[in-house]
Design goal:
Strands 3-2-1-4-5-6 form a six-stranded mixed β-sheet, sandwiched between helices. The protein starts with a strand and ends with a helix. It is 38% helix and 27% strand. The protein is of the alpha/beta class. The radius of gyration is 17 Å and the shape is elongated. The chain is built from five helices and six strands.
Length: 138
């Protein structure tokens, strides 16, 4: 029923999708406002309606869970989260624990595969990336 984007990077993706689908749009702050209505969700969210959270990327999923909890606290129902990029760092599992299904346009591994296939990345580049990822830094 609604499309939501998280502060800050998710807002343009979600606003675009809401426009394309002619659906209502809301955005979610990382923290509730410290003044006024102290709301974490900006926009008129109807209680009990379904909300798709659309974000730029997901790593460990913790920021998405924060947004999901904010939407749920405002009365929305979140069962799905769409991201452009899944960095494959455990986010899908974390969201599943919250009963939210993750959908990704692309994974980081798919990006690497295309990079190698199109010669945007060399095998030497991939060795550096693999070593970096094994350290848990990417």
């Amino acid at each position: 029923d609604f499309i939501a984007g998280g502060e800050t990077a998710g807002i343009p993706f979600a606003a675009w999708l809401a426009q394309q689908m002619n659906a209502p749009f809301v955005y979610v702050r990382k923290q509730p406002k410290g003044h006024g209505l102290t709301s974490q969700v900006e926009g008129k969210l109807t209680t009990g309606t379904s909300v798709l959270l659309y974000e730029d990327l997901i790593t460990d999923g913790l920021s998405k869970i924060n947004f999901i909890q904010g939407i749920r606290n405002a009365g929305g129902r979140v069962d799905h989260c769409l991201v452009v990029l899944d960095r494959l760092e455990g986010g899908e599992t974390k969201l599943a624990e919250e009963h939210v299904r993750l959908h990704a346009v692309v994974t980081i591994n798919q990006c690497f595969e295309v990079g190698l296939e199109k010669d945007y990345l060399s095998e030497k580049d991939m060795e550096v990336i693999r070593a970096y990822r094994e350290k848990g830094s990417l």
